[in-house]
Amino acid sequence: MSDVLSPLHDEHVALGAALTSFAGWQMPLRYTSDIAEHQAVRTAAGLFDLSHMGELEISGAGAAAALDHALVGDLTALALGRARYTMIVREDGGVLDDLVVYRLAEDRFLVVANASNVAVVRDALIERLAGFDATLHDASLTTALIAVQGPRAEEIVTSAAEPADVDPIRELKYYAAVNATVSGVPALVARTGYTGEDGFELFVPAEAAAELWRDLLAAGEPLGLVPAGLSARDSLRLEAGMPLYGNELDTTTTPYEAGLGRVVKLDKTGPDGEPLPFVGRAVLASRKGAQPARVLVGLRGLGKRAARHGYDVVMSTAPDSPVVGHVTSGAPSPTLGYPIALAYVTPEMCGEGRELAVDVRGRREPVVVVPVPFYRRPR
Predict the structure, then answer these.
(1) Which domain holds residue 21?
(2) What is the rounded CA–CA span in Å between residue 209 and residue 270?
(3) Which residues are annotated as a binding site for substrate?
(4) Which of 19, 117, 169, 222 could hold 97 in an S-S bridge, CB 3.0 to 4.6 Å?
């Protein structure tokens, strides 16, 4: 089965992008240089095609209640025009996917799923909506998603927006969204992102995406904006300590192990004030406060060789040192100038400042446990 082409595929080809197969899509890996694209986002702005992400619209009088049942978050409490990071888990608490949910109206929500999990999330939601006055519409293939990320993102997006929409976009809070017209294209403009920088994600009709992409490139080029691919997006999110499904999150991992227990709302209540059951609640309630078998930590490399996904974390650089965990994501940090990694380790090894090592192709490289995120943008 061939990969799905993004609505922006021809734009990527014209820009000379190196394309790669990712979650069943042909997507740009890079246009010029991974490091140059990464640094552009940190210093000016990057333009990303995220059209491979899934957009699932949940609507109906019972939409909020249905999502409260289906997800770990409290969606009834989500204000209009706001977004929330949440998760959908199995009955055993294992994460099926991490999601961003937008409340578009009192009875309408947009659930954004990772590309590799769209079918899994869609099928689980359809099953969990049964018995609620709510319906699901999969808009993934008719919706394009374009992100502008970086310190000059607001300047770029507002320069292309209709005059009446400039102030509403500027006034958006983090994890909020507004309907606006950008370069003549109707868009849901959200102040969200996956890079650790200020930025916006624009949900637009697929057929209008190419025009908007070209206009944003033209508006942003004098300000330092460059198109950026999946490789830069991954190094940016790693510096920002953001999890990637399939690396830090999977069906064998609960939100608590990943350090994301804050998204689990065990105290959700129904209209009658009684505790509201949701899928996975019983197991997650038993896990809260209990010591997990493993803990997700940040590692700073003390040498030059970077740890990578799947590498063993060991207690020390000694040849016979035991394995105490494994790396989930790792790379040299273009911003910080040294290797960084996320890893699951045993609880007794997770203390900040703890010196460990990573087996990098047979050579034990020293690392130290550090706080996450590795990078925070200047305020």
Answers:
(1) 4-51+142-239
(2) 40
(3) 201
(4) 117
- Contact in structure between 110 and 187 (CB atoms under 8 Å): no
Q: Are residues 43 and 147 in the same domain?
A: yes
Kindly state whether residues 309 and 360 are assigned to the same domain.
yes
Identify whether residues 345 and 229 lie together within a single domain: no
Q: Give the residue numbers of the binding site.
A: 201
Give me the pLDDT at residue 1, please: 67
The pLDDT value recorded for residue 342 is 98
Cis peptide bond N-terminal to 186, omega within 30 = no
List pLDDT tens digits, range 117-167: 999 999 999 999 999 999 999 999 999 999 999 999 999 999 999 999 999
Nearest of 234, 9, 23, 195 to residue 113 by alpha carbon:
23
**pTM: predicted TM-score of the whole model, two decimal places:** 0.97
| Residue in 152, 154, 224, 141 with CA at minimum distance from that of residue 182 | 154
Per-residue pLDDT for 23 more than 70? yes
Tracing tokens 């080029």 back to the chain, one arrives at 221
Number of domains in the chain: 3
Cβ atoms of 263 and 255 within 8 Å: the answer is yes
